[in-house]
Structure formats: C-alpha cells, structure tokens
Amino acid sequence: MVQLILASLYLLLPAYVANMAPVMANRFGILKFTAKPIDFGKTWKGKPVLGPNKTFRGFLVAILAGILISYVQYYLWRKSNVLLGSDIFPYERINFAVWGFLLSFGALFGDLIKSLIKRRFNIAPGKMWFPWDQLDMVVGAIVLGSTIFILPLKVMITVLILTPILALFVNYCSYKLGIKEKV
Fold first, then answer.
1. Minimal CA–CA distance to 167: which of 122, 125, 123, 136?
2. Torsion angle defined by CA atoms of residues 28, 33, 35 and 39, in that order, rounded to the nearest 10 degrees
3. Are the C-beta atoms of residues 62 and 21 closer than 8 Å to each other?
4. 121 phi and psi, to 5 degrees?
5. 119-173 tens-digit pLDDT
6. CA–CA distance, 60 with 18 (Å, rounded to integer)
7. d(Cα 181, Cα 183) in Å, to the nearest integer?
8. Containing H/E element for 4?
C-alpha cells in the first residue's frame, strides 16, 4: 500500500510541481514581463473570465517546470532502471518531454476551468473551494496524460484521494514559510 501511494504521487510529480510553479514564479519575480492575464482582463456577463492571477507567466513556468521534473524522473530511471513507479509507468516508451508537457498543461488547464467556474459562482480568486481547488489539476493532468498513457485505475484513485489532503498540508506550509499570503 505504501509503495502504491509513493509511486502514484511520484508519477504525478510533474503535475504537482507545475501546479506550484506559478506561485513560486510570482513570489520570486521570475519572468515578470510575462505576468499578464491570460484572459487579457476581459469580463463575461460583468465578471472576470478567469481573473488576474491566471497569467502567461504561470503557464510558461509551470510547463517548463513539469517538463524538467519529467526529465529528472526519466534520467533517474535511465541511471537506475529500478525507480519508484517503474513497474507502473513505461519510461522506456514514453517521451519524457511530451509526458511532462501533457501533465503540466493538463494541471494548469484544469485549474483554468475551475477558475472560470469559480468566477461564475462569484467565488473570489484565492478563496478556498474545497475539494475542487485540489482536484482540478489532478483531473486535468490525468485526462491530458491519458492521451499517451492511461494510468492504472488504482493510481488514479490514490491521487484523487490523497491530493486534497496533501494540498491542504502544502498550502499551510507555504503560508507558514511566507511563500503564500493566504492559507
């Protein structure tokens, strides 16, 4: 059971890192010139389409971070050939850059869809909407990732159960470390 949990979280690590990358990029002022809203500040029925926190910088940094993590996983697998999740995921057949891109883009796209829905329900940006704030990125990553590899059902269920719990813990730690302004 512990092996399944660790392997599942490890396999989705590019999506998890991609999901955190925009916050880190904002916090440390990375690529400030790309910090422009994806929705260009447009409104729909008097409400922001996505809001000012969904930026081109966030997307760019997230995708690059996800691909980098995917490369590190692939590199570690090549060096050891026995790696967490290597019995589940076919590292030898899947292009790490494509996999990293799909998980990262999926995670951010899931977040965009959730933000669009939150704006329609008048839920303020940054205000918690449990468990959807935690599941959007996992669902997006799994859906887009499945275009080249369908994760086993036990992995999908594991990450869907654990992600909300881990996200709350990471958000709390980020707040305590001064990385995020709100819990």
1. 136
2. -170
3. yes
4. -95, 10
5. 889 888 778 887 788 899 999 999 999 999 999 999 999 999 999 988 888 878 8
6. 10
7. 7
8. helix 2-11
